[in-house]
Design a protein that fits this description.
The chain is α/β, with parallel strands linked by helices. It has one domain: Rossmann fold. The chain is 36% helix and 25% strand. It contains eleven helices and ten strands. Strands 6-7-8-3-9-10 form a six-stranded mixed β-sheet, sandwiched between helices. A four-stranded antiparallel β-sheet has the order 2-1-4-5, covered by helices on one side. Helix 6 links the parallel strand 7 and strand 8. The longest helix has 14 residues. The radius of gyration is 19 Å and the shape is globular. The termini are far apart. The chain binds adenosine-5'-triphosphate and magnesium ion (MG). Magnesium ion binds next to helix 1.
Length: 253
């Protein structure tokens, strides 16, 4: 059976206004329903690539979402299909209340207020933040903010979820809860992360990006067990795998 493509990126290059090149001819396909992990060292271009998937940044090259090429004209439609959750929830939340932030998208798309109220309530329940409607987002903990930031995207009923460092800064229990929450979303997912354990738990395939180039892509079970490949790009195997592999003395001699 041929899998439908959710996202196709072809020969994408991007220069920031200060002329530094962050993406160098990136090509990548993500199948519908798949979870793809995007790993790479600091400054590799992970966040920059995610920002292209919903047209927040526009580089040279092609980005196609569900068969449709992203252009200036269809930017709004594409943004509804690709929900991007930033690494820092403070970049996502800007309204005085949690309700205001989660209701912002649906209200802006012309949904009726009673419908929006129901959607907000359902979505806050889904992310475990029911009862926080009247709270000020900037008074929430990081973990709570991350849940609300995810809600602002899920409430739009997107097809594709692009997550930047979803577990960054979370405590172990918060991290596990957030991983369960992501895992429960039946969507196509692209996850940029330094959390190799998360990549191992959630991702079907993993792409390594380094210095703006995709240097490897394959099944998570191949990429995340290739210690030499990972080390070349300043990455490490998921800790759980290491402990089940060879003893420490054999690996670090
Ligand atoms: N606003 C900006 N202006 C200029 N250069 C930028 C800007 N944002 C990022 N860069 C540069 O682009 C490159 C890619 O950065 P990016 O944030 O995409 O990396 P990353 O893989 O997400 O890193 P990290 O793991 O630290 O989050 C880096 O060299 C970075 O310095
Ligand atoms: Mg980043």
């Amino acid at each position: 059976m041929v899998k439908m493509t959710a996202i196709k990126v072809e020969n994408l290059s991007y220069w920031y206004p200060d002329s530094s090149q962050a993406l160098r001819g990136v090509s990548l396909e993500i199948a519908r329903g798949e979870t793809l992990g995007l790993v790479g060292p600091n400054g590799a271009g992970k966040s920059t690539l995610l920002l292209h998937l919903n047209g927040t940044l526009r580089g040279d090259g092609i980005v196609e979402v569900l068969g449709e090429r992203l252009t200036r004209k269809n930017l709004d439609q594409i943004r509804r299909k690709v929900g991007l959750v930033f690494e820092d929830p403070n970049d996502q939340l800007f309204m005085p209340t949690v309700f205001g932030d989660v209701a912002f998208g649906p209200l802006n798309s012309g949904r009726d207020e009673p419908v929006v109220r129901r959607l907000v309530q359902e979505t806050l329940e889904a992310v475990g933040m029911e009862g926080y409607e009247a709270h000020a987002p900037h008074h929430l903990s990081l973990g709570q903010k991350k849940r609300v930031a995810l809600a602002t995207v899920l409430v739009m009923d997107c097809d594709i979820l692009a997550l930047d460092e979803p577990t960054g800064g979370l405590d172990p229990a918060g991290r596990e809860g957030f991983i369960r929450l992501i895992s429960a979303q039946p969507l196509t997912k692209v996850i940029a992360t330094h959390d190799m354990e998360l990549a191992w738990q959630l991702c079907d395939r993993v792409a390594i990006i380094d210095s703006g180039e995709i240097v490897a892509v394959g099944p998570a079970s191949d990429i995340l067990t290739d210690e030499q490949l990972l080390r070349t790009h300043k990455l490490r195997c998921p800790p759980g795998l290491i402990y089940s592999h060879a003893p420490y003395s054999e690996r670090y001699q």
